[in-house]
Design a protein that fits this description.
The protein is an alpha+beta fold. The protein has 3 helices and 10 strands; from the N terminus they run E-E-E-E-E-E-H-E-E-E-E-H-H. Strands 3, 4, 5, 6, 7, 8, 9 and 10 form an 8-stranded mixed beta sheet that branches. A two-stranded antiparallel sheet has the order 1-2. Helix 2 (about 130-135) packs antiparallel against helix 3 (about 140-150). The chain is globular, with a radius of gyration of 15 Å. The two termini are about 25 Å apart.
Length: about 160
C-alpha cells in the first residue's frame, strides 16, 4: 500500500518500520442545526491553520474514544463518537528535525454542546461551517474530500 500526500513523495507502508509510520485518530465534530449539517473546525496552535482535532492512540481507549477525547481537549466538544471510520488522510509531522509520515483515521463525533471552558481554550479558535465551506479552508486534499462528502445519515 502506498500513501501519498499531494505535496510530498509517496511513502511505501509495507517497507516502513514501526518507527517510520505513525497513526493518529481524528474527530469530525458535527451537528444538525435548522436542518443543515455543520462541522466544527479549530485552528492549529502553531500556524493558525484550520484543522480537525486529532491525536495519538490512548491506552484503554478505542480509536473513536481517543478521537472524542481530542475533540474535548482541543475544541471543548461534549459529544458522542461513532465507531465508524469515515476516511483516512496522511500528512508529515516534523519531530526533532525529522519528517515522520502520519496516517489519520477520522471518526465522526456528534456534538451535544460546546463547553465555554476546555483544556486548550486559550490556544485555539473554533468555527462551525457547512461541509462544503469547511473543505475549502482545509489544507490537506484527502481531508477536504472526507469533510466535503461527509453525511452522518444512516450511521
Amino acid at each position: 500500500m502506498i500513501v501519498v500526500n499531494a505535496r510530498q513523495k509517496p511513502v511505501h507502508l509495507q517497507s516502513a518500520g514501526k518507527r517510520d509510520v505513525r497513526t493518529q485518530f481524528g474527530a469530525l465534530p458535527y451537528r444538525v442545526k435548522n436542518g443543515k449539517l455543520q462541522v466544527l473546525l479549530i485552528t492549529s496552535r502553531g500556524t493558525g491553520r484550520w484543522i480537525l482535532p486529532k491525536g495519538w492512540p490512548m491506552d484503554g481507549a478505542t480509536p473513536a474514544q481517543a478521537a472524542a477525547t481530542e475533540a474535548f481537549e482541543e475544541a471543548g466538544v461534549d459529544g458522542t463518537p461513532l465507531d465508524t471510520v469515515v476516511g483516512f488522510y496522511s500528512y508529515f509531522k516534523v519531530h526533532e528535525k525529522e519528517r515522520l509520515p502520519v496516517v489519520v483515521a477520522i471518526f465522526p463525533v456528534r456534538v451535544r454542546r460546546l463547553l465555554n471552558d476546555w483544556p486548550e481554550a486559550g490556544q485555539r479558535k473554533r468555527k462551525w461551517l457547512s461541509p462544503k465551506k469547511a473543505a475549502k479552508v482545509l489544507d490537506e486534499p484527502e481531508l477536504r474530500q472526507i469533510v466535503k462528502h461527509f453525511d452522518p445519515r444512516g450511521m
